[in-house]
Amino acid sequence: MDWKKCFTSYQDAFINDLRGLLAIDSTRDDSSATINAPFGKGCRQALDYMFALAKRDGFMYQDYDGYAGVICYGDGEESVGVLAHLDIVPIGEGWSKDPFGGEIVDGYLFGRGSEDDKGPAMAAYYAMKMLKDQGIQLQRKVMLILGCDEESGMQCMEHYKKHGEIPTLGFTPDADFPVIYGEKGGLHVDLLGEIDNSVIEEIHAGEALNIVIGKADMQVHNWKEEYAALFDFYLQCYDLKGEVTYENSHATLHIEGKAAHAMEPYMGVNAALHLFNFVGTAMGDTFAKKTYQLLANWQGKELGILIDGADMGFLTMNLGKVDIENGKAKLQLDIRYPNDADVHTMRKAIEEACQGYELTPHVYNKANPLFVDPNSELVQTLTSVYQAYSNDYETKNMTIGGGTYAKKFEHFVAYGPLFPKQDKPKGLVVGGCHQADEGIALSDLFTATAIYTEAIARLAGGNQYEKNKDHLHPGPRGGQRGYDSHPDPLPKLR
């Protein structure tokens, strides 16, 4: 079956359902948390919205205390899982479009979550819907698992794993095509303590650990009028926007940087780090100068954790949150490390590097790396489906610095929805995930839906698929060089 052709009759309904989901502000909000809404009313509303669609379309579904929900198709002792999330990162500033409006411009759908991860979640849902509507009988149950806390800790999946059914294998539509078979591990470091003899009075910057600080304000004392010219010169040197307001010996410094995902901190400009740099150099503040020296390098060089992994490349580090007030300081780091790094060695190196620094490091291993054999049948099956629908035989499967739900389960990888080599219309600003004006091409989302439909059918052993696994010509193998030509089999159907 040509699922892309089949989907044409679903497109209008798909857009309508997705716009309804995008209209919900599902940012985590602990202030509105209740027993059945542990991440706030918005996340609860988004989960209920998906349950309403499931009820409308005749699917079975189950709520796991508001942490997560499952929508199911078919039955069987074994299952194929699709892991998506309904929560979003904070909106931030700089939008030219309504972040909840679902506006369509030049074939692009805009809204927070359109790319990460409401759009892909809806694509997976419609993949199940098409399979059901077409009467495809599966040997494995299909489980769309919808979490509500992916962006701020993945507590949702930890809760689900304790109370729900664990899928046999599957994927998460929360990354890039073709297949993401490896993800870096995650360390969080809290730098805590009291600071003395610093000109810094107050700074509260950063929306989330997994976002580069895009703007920041810092209040300082011992300000001198001549510092204003130095601040303007600093902004010019680094091509930054900012301003200073001051009265007598007190000043507020503002710098606008550039937000970016923490897995690629080099794509952003950390406003807080620039403030530390200026205050440390121009105003001679020892604490600010040391902070910048330790944290400025996105590879963690000064912390002694510079690592270039054989499979996943360099470790990355992001200063995601800064809170200083009344002499008490808390700086939080998001570190993504390759699979051949040793957590104990990194912790020791960070502690040694911070000796003599006013803040004490507290290191937490938040997530181990994910690495699935790129020659496994799971990876190869997903690759062949992608190639058949995209006609892209050049792009290689890869590893990333981002963290997805795939880390939480065995035999899981990340799979789309973003396609390589995207050419956007001239003059149209389209932000990526976690950015202002987040948007996604509807044509890409439609193709991704077809890919997910075929992939689920192949993995779940659909009645027409087990008999003829090559009904879609796989083309050249998925670009896996240097691996055994005999892939590891999928877990066997009982």
Write out key terms for the chains shown.
494 residues, 2 domains, eight-stranded antiparallel sheet, Aminopeptidase, six-stranded mixed sheet, elongated, 24 strands, alpha+beta, Alpha-Beta Plaits
Word description of this protein:
- The chain is of the alpha+beta class and 494 residues long.
- It folds into 2 domains: 3-183 and 370-460, 3-Layer(aba) Sandwich (Aminopeptidase), CATH 3.40.630; 185-367, 2-Layer Sandwich (Alpha-Beta Plaits), CATH 3.30.70.360.
- The protein has 11 helices and 24 strands.
- The protein has helices spanning 3-7, 11-22, 41-57, 118-133, 155-163, 227-237, 271-282, 286-295, 343-353, 377-390, 442-460, and strands at 60-64, 68-73, 79-85, 104-105, 108-110, 141-147, 169-172, 175-176, 180-183, 185-194, 200-205, 215-220, 241-247, 250-256, 308-309, 313-314, 316-325, 328-337, 360-367, 370-371, 398-400, 412-414, 417-418, 439-441.
- The strands form 6 sheets. An 8-stranded antiparallel β-sheet has the order 13-14-12-11-17-18-10-19, covered by helices on one side. The chain has a 6-stranded mixed β-sheet with strand order 1-2-6-3-7-22, with helices on both faces. A 3-stranded antiparallel β-sheet has the order 4-5-24.
- Strand 4 and strand 5 (108-110) form a beta hairpin.
- Helix 2 (11-22) runs antiparallel to helix 4, helix 4 packs across helix 11 and helix 10 (377-390) packs across helix 11 (442-460).
- The longest helix is centred in the last third of the chain and has 19 residues, at 442-460.
- The protein is elongated and about 75 Å long.
